[in-house]
Specification:
- It is a single chain.
- The chain is an alpha/beta fold.
- Helix content is 35%, strand content 21%.
- The chain contains twelve helices and 14 strands.
- The strands form two sheets. Strands 1, 2, 3, 4, 5, 6, 12, 13 and 14 form a nine-stranded mixed sheet that branches. Strands 7, 8, 9, 10 and 11 form a five-stranded antiparallel sheet that branches.
- The longest helix has 21 residues.
- It starts with a helix and ends with a helix.
- The protein binds glyoxylic acid and manganese (II) ion (MN) (2 copies).
Length: 406
């Protein structure tokens, strides 16, 4: 009989093999692999005796009854989607570690006083639509029209994707109202190097940095690559290159501001045509909202100047703004107590990465636990967390769950 940790390690590998590409790991919102992973996760929840359901967008929920079924539930969870060419721990580990903690608790015949709802969110990364947190946003209320009209790189709107590609059979909306839950806890890999440098296996999170995502489109004029003198061109791609370098310079001058251009598409995209349009993404983050907002304004000024000088049209399209979110002090203190009991540490660090807790914080207190990952590497196929550290994370989570009173 495998231990819960052994089962967890095998499940990380199993989910890590479910991909839309034969060459690397990728599972984006509503992709075939994402839904396959969601179905497998639902099966694991069912095997544990949970009452399971799924939403049309592919978010899965397992409910473990507590001794008082009317008590507000505790939410646990993470996301099942990945970035492109991802590692297998970001997201998946939080769901699998929670399953392992619950499996251990059930094996001991320990009954929690409140129900636990384990959530596997369909989208946190926002890779397909550039919109983060689709899974968690959908459980606190309907998605707004602007989000539903967001298009993927094939021009498919989010609304059409859910209608045509969603997991509809037996689906039920999964929804929570403010005040309905006692809290939300997520275990995640750190995705940075603080734990490794401090030789700590785990820590608790103080808060999650704010982030803005934008779509930028520069439009010039397509023309002949052989006959158009350099001075007469309206080249959208060289304009985009200048904007991207300006963004990098701005961020370098204002640490801990970070700005990333992770995706660019040009049209028409031929070696002998001058690019007519260049569309690229901006991901801009800062722990302080006021400095994130002033950096956005500065970037807008700089892109406007570059576009004007190059006689290009600039479309500046904000996709999403998420403010920085502090974790809940009371829940965080309780998680810190469990961290200290298991590891002796009381390390508390901020998260530069985004997490579903940003959205859950609108309806209930949130807290997060980070597990060390090798070289702090994430969003990369070499992402790795050791079995010992994962085991430690499961122990902390188990201790936390067992020490909660009604
Ligand atoms: C998710 O990993 C994010 O921070 O973008
Ligand atoms: Mn994640
Ligand atoms: Mn991620």
């Amino acid at each position: 009989m495998p231990t819960p940790l052994q089962t967890a390690l095998s499940r990380i590998d199993q989910l890590g093999r479910i991909s839309d590409s034969p060459s690397f790991l990728v599972r984006t919102f509503l992709s075939p692999a994402n839904l396959t992973a969601a179905r497998l996760t639902r099966q694991w929840m069912e095997d544990l005796g949970m009452q399971v359901s799924h939403a049309p967008d592919g978010t899965v929920r397992g409910i473990l009854a507590g001794s008082d079924s009317s008590a507000p539930p505790l939410l646990l969870g993470s996301h099942i989607d990945t970035v492109i060419d991802a590692g297998k721990y970001d997201g998946a580990l939080g769901i699998i570690a929670a399953l392992a903690a619950l499996e251990g608790i059930l094996a001991e015949k320990f009954t929690l006083p409140f129900p636990v709802h384990l959530l596997a969110f369909s989208d946190e990364e926002g890779t397909r639509f550039q919109t983060t947190y689709l899974g968690s946003r959908s459980i606190i209320g309907p998605l707004d029209q602007k989000t539903l009209q967001a298009k993927d790189s094939h021009g498919i709107t989010l609304a059409a994707a859910i209608a045509q590609e969603g997991w509809h059979g037996d689906s039920v909306p999964i929804r929570y109202s403010p005040g309905e839950c006692r809290g939300y806890i997520e275990l995640h890999i750190e995705q940075g190097r603080v734990l490794e440098e401090g030789a700590e296996p785990a820590c608790v999170v103080s808060g999650i940095a704010g982030q803005s995502r934008l779509s930028i489109i520069l439009t010039g004029r397509a023309d002949h690559a052989g006959t158009t003198p350099m001075a007469l061109r309206h080249d959208a791609l060289t304009g985009a290159a200048e904007c991207i370098l300006a963004a990098e310079s701005l961020a370098r001058l204002q640490p801990p501001l970070v700005i990333t251009v992770g995706k660019i598409q040009i049209h028409p995209g031929a070696s002998n045509s001058i690019p007519q349009s260049a569309a690229f993404t901006i991901d801009l983050r800062h722990p302080l909202d006021s400095l994130r907002e002033s950096a956005l304004a500065e970037l807008h000024r700089s892109f406007s100047e570059i576009s004007a000088q190059r006689r290009l049209t600039l479309d500046w399209l904000p996709v999403q703004d998420n403010p920085a979110i502090p974790c809940d002090p009371t829940l965080t203190k309780k998680l810190l107590q469990s961290l200290t009991v298991i590891t002796g540490s009381s390390a508390l660090i901020p998260s530069g990465a985004g997490h579903d807790g940003v959205i859950l914080s609108k309806i209930c207190p949130i807290a997060m636990l980070f597990i060390r990952c090798r070289d702090g590497l994430s969003h990369h196929p070499d992402e790795y967390a050791s079995p010992e550290d994962i085991g430690c994370g499961i122990e902390i989570l188990t201790h936390f769950l067992k020490s909660q009173k009604l």
